[in-house]
């Protein structure tokens, strides 16, 4: 799956326990704003949702919206 900045994505699942604010985004659609390194080797995807709320996800938690 090739994700790109500016692409719309849907949150499919959450790997770990998360805050209620993040859990509310499950099944929601947002826009990729940037990529970031996580835990020294993985890549996280920063997604912005309506209301200017943004947080990061692992790539396998997201699916491109077509």
TrEMBL record:
Superkingdom assignment: Bacteria
Pfam families per record: Tsr0524-like
UniProt cross-references to InterPro entries, sorted A to Z: Tsr0524-like (IPR021291)
The name this protein goes by in its record: DUF2862 domain-containing protein
């Amino acid at each position: 799956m090739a994700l790109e900045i500016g692409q719309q994505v849907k949150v499919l699942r959450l790997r770990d326990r998360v805050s209620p604010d993040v859990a509310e985004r499950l099944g929601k659609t947002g826009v990729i704003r940037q990529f970031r390194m996580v835990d020294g080797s993985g890549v996280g995807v920063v997604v912005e949702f309506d209301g200017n709320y943004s947080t990061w996800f692992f790539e396998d938690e997201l699916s491109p919206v077509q």
